[in-house]
Amino acid sequence: MAKLGSAIFSRLVIIIPYAWLLFFFLIPFFIVFRISLSTTAIAQPPYEPVFALADGLSGLWAKLGELHFDNFVWLTEDALYINAYLSSLWIAAVSTILTLVIGYPIAYGMAQAPRSLRPTLLMLVILPFWTSFLIRVYAWIAILKPEGLLNQFLLGIGIIDSPLIIINTNWAIYIGIVYSYLPFMVLPIYSALEKMDHSLIEAAQDLGCPPITAFWKVTFPLSIPGVVAGCMLVFIPAVGEFVIPDLLGGSQTLMIGKTLWNEFNANRDWPVSAAVATILLLILVVPIVFFQNAQAKAEEQGR
Amino acid sequence: MQTWSRFNIASVVLGFAFLYLPIVLLVVFSFNESKLVTVWAGFSTKWYASLFRNQGLIDAAWVTIRVALLAASVATVLGTMAALALTRYTRFRGRLLFSGMVYAPLVMPEVITGLSLLLLFVAIGFDRGFWTVTLAHITFSMCFVTVVVQSRLLSFDRSIEEAAMDLGATPVRTFFEVTLPVIAPAVLSGWMLALTLSLDDLVIASFTSGPGATTLPMKIYSQVRLGVTPEINAACTILIGLVAVGVLVASILTKRREVQRLRDEQAAFAGR
Question: Core-most of A274, B24, B45, B101, by most CB within 10 Å?
């Protein structure tokens, strides 16, 4: 009896979330792909052919013949889309490097802090994450505007003579991404550094290794799993970011998340936006699998 | 014990200044008399007053709170189940796909998740509105709950579960009476994480919402596009205040619980 109960319990615990994710996460991707092969139509929903259960198998087969790759051909022919993909990858890569350069010293400093202080510091890194992402991006508009607080400050202390134009440029996007994603970089690096055995550094220094060499030869290699996890957590979502380029980047900046949004909401072209999403997903599959392997390895170690 | 060097202190302090300064400025300027958000003209609470007369914002806030409470609660149940499945059952058919589906939403760009869910709802003929936003929020936030709960389950001493089972407790009873009380703080913080993710989400909600189900971030976003106003600063300050109170209460509760547990343990050892 207990054995039967155990079997039912374990089955349910697996099947319910499994089925949920299959239905609401995996199947939608197939629908996206399918609609990316349709044509735009002035109808509700705005694409055709539309599959219906009532068609039966023969109807389904006839409609499969109407699918085509025109939307993908269209994406490769229009330089706008290619440029948007390339500039998204570029912006995400630059932002990830900047986040690493800024985040690593913070994580390192936290890991070196007195033990009693560390939980508070950790809490302070997590806390901004609990406030709205939209609000945090919005806050930067008032700071970066030509007549904004940063320019007022810099003009006031006399470093610059005329206001810096930051908002509506790529720099505003870099600042926005670094700011919003910084905790995602700091936390994994901190947890890698905190677990580190400190006697290794002492051993290196006892053997005559200068502190900076000891850092590059001992500390940094040991923190690489944290660095990789942090970079993935920043890079992947940043490629498809919408809110930051939209609010801080202005109309000139080209990022694929924004292109997709406009294609969908302004042009109401569902098949093309589905094709844009499909290609974005294909680009991101490699880093996502990489991230999952790292995650699975961490899980294995924790076991 | 090495000292906390000046360089390390400087990088931590500068890092925190960078993280907190924009939020502090936003809060300060919500009390500004002037309509300009960048020029200080004296203290005033008039933007809060005008906020409470803005019926559109208040309606949106209600929708958001209802969606978030419902979505976070369901996501916590589903996410905890998924965490149990991943930590307790290392071998079952399709485990690789399962763990892939749990980790992928953590990094998936929101525009993709939003679009794909919308197309699903259209394909099955589900009218967009309150329920579609809620379902979408459950789906992406449950994976965050899973990660939080999973890390707690991995450091869990399984022998006490085994002891309960050996003494004849059913798996369900063992879970509710032994496992759940131990992982409760992680489940609670998973719930809070899911709640904030849902309260915060703009992109997925915009794709999956329909008429009559405008959420607060959607409302804020559409106003921000028209220009920065102190009224939005005031709305943001209230949200930040609510979150800060929530986090404070939660941390006090966990601290108290920990102190209590330490005391219990000491009492148990003393009594032996």
Answer: A274
Cα A154 off chain centre by:
32
Query: Does the beta carbon of B103 lie under 8 angstroms from any beta carbon of chain A?
Result: yes
Residue spans of the domains in chain A: they are 1-27, 79-302
Question: Mutation test of the interface with chain B: which of A15, A31, A99, A263, choosing the one with the most B Cβ atoms within 10 A?
Answer: A31
Q: Is A34 helix (H, G, I), strand (E, B) or coil?
A: helix
Chain-chain contact of B171 with A10 (C-beta, under 8 angstroms): yes
Position A98 scores a pLDDT of: 96
Reduced to 3 states (helix: H, G, I; strand: E, B; else coil), residue B217 is helix
Minimum-distance CB partner of B26 among A16, A124, A139? A139
Sorted by where each starts, the structural domains of chain B and their CATH numbers stand as 59-260 (1.10.3720.10)
Residue A266 Cα, gap to closest chain B Cα (Å): 13
Provide the 10 A C-beta neighbour count for residue A4: 9
pLDDT of residue A54: 56
Average the pLDDT over B43-72 and give the result. 88
Residue A1 has pLDDT above 80, yes or no: no
Query: Strand, helix or coil at A39?
Result: strand
- The pLDDT tens digits of the residues spanning A2-48 come to 566 677 888 888 899 999 999 999 999 988 888 888 877 666 677 76
- Cβ of B60 under 8 Å from any chain A Cβ? no
| Calpha distance B182→B267 (Å, rounded) | 19
Is A79-302 a CATH 3.40.50.300 domain? no
